[in-house]
């Protein structure tokens, strides 16, 4: 039984169906060339500025937004159903694109560049905008909302519009949510002319970091890094019980390092693993659930982790290295939990691994494709040497281009690594002329090898296409980030974030007081119980908001609204940020709108809702681990007061709890479990995951009878005569 991929065209249609961010319209040849040229220019702009120096903040963000919004009106159709409608040119549709889309694109470009154009006079305009400023701001907001609706969907624009109405008419509301209200001029002044709105942190992070890493992921996949990861996972894990399911876990974990997209991971890795799991004997819904759950780990797996991780740099004022370190153990716990549930499921149903004859050899896979890993090594090496994330991305992309042009030549790969190590050691790897000099040398080598290769022009075309596709995949997140800027701007203008925080903490305190009236005094802690209820409410809102809003937007909104509530209760900022981030990602496998699970269900021909429920069960570790690092912050390594003793105890008991909980949820450890053993181990797992030594010891004591019963039943089963 070999692992074979599904039809690429069918997979592309499937990704478009479930991911609005890649639902592009068909274009006529001439228009397609124009759009491709603009997309390539956008990628080239970001690639150049990452290596040779960013422009002035307002100019850089303005150019990025002009490209993004203008392209969205050319790439995304007015209505969802039109993305399969063949393009037809006419008087009202020049180049096969409706005239109003050309007008909207032009308006988006002008309105996006207007603010950077008047930047030198902003000091005289902020607080007292001129009529033209208000007009341009109004145009910018309208085209931004429409671009976001097309590329991301309705929920985010609806939230933004609702909050703008609140900003203007807040005086009409009762109680704590009331505020004096604002004129439209005051609202657009704050949202457009200051750095607290559209041109704020969210857009800046996408323009400075996220775009580069999306482009890196596309290029790395093109040169074979994705194939290396999947084949290596198959070689290492395929032979064991439930082989393709374990390939799915390891493959998704490694592929997620360069992707950062749950749906893209599901479709790419699942095209190989889902059919193989079904052929092995996994039920359709289980195969789909395993792949989607493993794939959602992509957004929490370092080093890329999706856009939210880069936003943490700006919000928390921490180096990216710290974010990566903080993410390591929680991500490992997610995959650890999925792995053991898959293993116990395979044992329960007698599912074997893939025959050794059908597996690739790890040594052969590494020998064939190891140069494809050089760009990732370069990126990590530069990143952890203390340089900026965008400079690391620049050199990662450069390495991808070099490796791609030289057809993964081992000599070139080793040579490039040696040059990078020497440049870092000599302190030459900076923005400016030193970087230009190194880049020029690399370009000469790259060109020389390309000229020697008979297929050089085809390789060049493929690299250019990767730059085009990378930009195409990144424009939707740019629009979403700018729209989130509207939401953040209204929150800072009205102070509604702190008002909501007070409402949440007050309600949590009331629930805690009610609980205290039931529990004995020795078991009740008012502050701890208030924090628990606040966390539960925050988690629920994150999941509900994630049903219709992309993870990045979900994260920013919840950080703006929920983080102050958690801060009031003494939760460290990085812990609060990771908490809302994790629950935003969890929405991808949480019904009723579990997009990653539903995409996998379509690939498997399974019931979507059943797949979503199973995926949520498989991903339960991801749902519980955030509570662990709130109460045991040492799990994130970089928190205040970190000690290795606390870290080892918390990580060990959490891992043991995840392991025991996996057995309880599956209903099998050594043999099938009766109900009392599942309940006993379930309680034990929860107690062990609580970062408290007393709770952990009680959890171990609770687990012992069930584990002994499992051992005895296993021995009886082994001693029983066969047949």
From TrEMBL:
Compartment(s): Cell inner membrane
One Pfam family it belongs to: DctM
Coiled coil (residue ranges): none
Topological type in the membrane: Multi-pass membrane protein
Stretches assigned to the TRAP C4-dicarboxylate transport system permease DctM subunit domain: 140-406, 416-639
Annotated transmembrane regions: 30-50, 62-79, 99-119, 154-177, 197-220, 322-342, 376-404, 411-429, 435-452, 473-497, 503-524, 531-549, 555-571, 578-600, 620-638, 647-671, 683-708
Molecular function, one GO term: transmembrane transporter activity
Keywords: Cell inner membrane, Cell membrane, Membrane, Transmembrane, Transmembrane helix, Transport
Tagged with keyword Lyase: no
One GO CC annotation: plasma membrane
Entry keyword Transmembrane: yes
InterPro entries given in the database record: DctM (IPR010656), TRAP_DctM-Dct_fused (IPR011853)
PANTHER family named in the record: BLL3936 PROTEIN
Function: Part of the tripartite ATP-independent periplasmic (TRAP) transport system.
Identification of the protein by name: C4-dicarboxylate ABC transporter permease
């Amino acid at each position: 039984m070999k692992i074979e991929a599904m039809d690429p065209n069918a997979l592309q249609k499937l990704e478009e169906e479930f991911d609005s961010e890649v639902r592009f319209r068909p274009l006529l040849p001439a228009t397609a060339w124009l759009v491709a040229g603009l997309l390539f220019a956008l990628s080239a702009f970001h690639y150049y500025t990452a290596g040779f120096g960013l422009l002035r903040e307002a100019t850089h963000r303005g150019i990025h937004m002009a490209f993004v919004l203008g392209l969205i009106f050319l790439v995304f159709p007015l209505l969802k159903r039109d993305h399969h409608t063949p393009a037809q040119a006419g008087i009202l549709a020049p180049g096969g694109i409706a005239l109003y889309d050309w007008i909207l694109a032009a308006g988006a470009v002008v309105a996006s560049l207007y603010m950077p154009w008047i930047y030198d006079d902003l000091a005289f305009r902020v607080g007292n905008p001129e009529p033209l400023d208000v007009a341009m701001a109004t145009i910018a907001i309208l085209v931004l909302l429409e671009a976001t609706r097309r590329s991301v969907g309705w929920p985010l624009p609806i939230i933004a519009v609702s909050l703008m109405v609140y900003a203007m008419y807040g005086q009409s509301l009762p109680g704590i949510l009331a505020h004096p209200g604002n004129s439209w001029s005051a609202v657009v002044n704050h949202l457009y002319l200051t750095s607290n709105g559209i041109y704020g942190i969210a857009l800046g992070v996408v323009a400075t970091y996220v775009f580069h890493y999306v482009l890196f992921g596309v290029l790395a996949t093109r040169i074979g890094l994705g194939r290396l990861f999947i084949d290596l996972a198959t070689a290492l894990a395929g032979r064991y019980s439930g082989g393709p399911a374990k390939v799915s876990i390891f493959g998704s974990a490694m592929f997620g390092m360069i992707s950062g997209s749950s749906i893209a991971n599901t479709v790419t890795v699942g095209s190989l693993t889902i059919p193989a799991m079904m052929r092995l004997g996994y039920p359709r819904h289980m195969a789909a659930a395993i792949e989607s759950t493993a794939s959602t780990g992509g957004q929490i797996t370092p080093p890329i982790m999706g856009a939210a991780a880069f936003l943490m740099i700006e919000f928390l004022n921490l180096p990216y290295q710290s974010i990566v370190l903080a993410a390591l153990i929680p991500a490992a716990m997610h995959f650890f939990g999925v792995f053991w549930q898959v293993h116990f499921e395979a044992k329960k149903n007698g599912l074997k691994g893939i025959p050794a004859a059908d597996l690739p050899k790890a040594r052969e896979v590494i020998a064939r494709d190891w140069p494809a890993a050089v760009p990732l090594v370069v990126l990590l090496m530069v990143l952890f040497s203390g340089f900026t994330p965008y400079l690391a991305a620049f050199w990662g992309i450069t390495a991808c281009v070099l490796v791609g042009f030289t057809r993964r030549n081992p000599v070139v790969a080793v040579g490039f690594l040696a040059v990078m190590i020497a440049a870092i050691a000599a302190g030459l790897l900076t923005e400016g002329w030193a970087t230009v000099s190194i880049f020029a040398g690399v370009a000469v080598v790259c060109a020389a090898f390309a000229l020697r290769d008979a297929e050089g022009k085809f390789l060049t075309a493929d690299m250019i296409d990767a730059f085009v596709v990378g930009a195409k995949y990144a424009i939707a997140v740019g629009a979403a980030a700018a729209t989130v800027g509207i939401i953040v701007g209204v929150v800072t203008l009205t102070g509604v974030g702190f008002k909501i925080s007070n409402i949440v903490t007050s309600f949590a305190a009331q629930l805690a007081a009610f609980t205290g009236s039931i529990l004995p005094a020795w078991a009740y802690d008012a502050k701890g119980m208030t924090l628990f209820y606040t966390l539960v409410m925050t988690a629920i809102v994150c999941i509900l908001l994630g049903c219709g809003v992309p993870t990045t937007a979900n994260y920013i909104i919840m950080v703006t609204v929920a983080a102050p509530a958690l801060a009031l209760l003494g939760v460290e900022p990085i812990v609060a940020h990771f908490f809302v981030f994790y629950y935003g990602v969890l929405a991808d496998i949480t019904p009723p709108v579990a997009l990653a699970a539903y995409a996998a269900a379509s690939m498997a021909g399974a019931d979507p809702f059943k797949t979503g429920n199973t995926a949520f069960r498989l991903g339960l570790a991801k749902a519980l681990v955030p509570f662990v690092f709130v109460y045991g912050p040492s799990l994130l390594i970089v928190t205040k007061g970190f000690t290795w003793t606390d870290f080892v105890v918390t990580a060990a008991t959490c891992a043991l709890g995840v392991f025991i909980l996996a057995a309880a949820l599956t209903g099998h450890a050594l043999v099938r479990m009766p109900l009392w053993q599942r309940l006993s181990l379930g309680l034990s797992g929860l107690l062990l995951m609580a970062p408290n030594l007393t709770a952990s010891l009680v959890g171990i004591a609770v687990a012992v009878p069930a584990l002994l019963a499992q051992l005895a039943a296993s021995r009886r089963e082994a001693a029983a005569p066969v047949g």
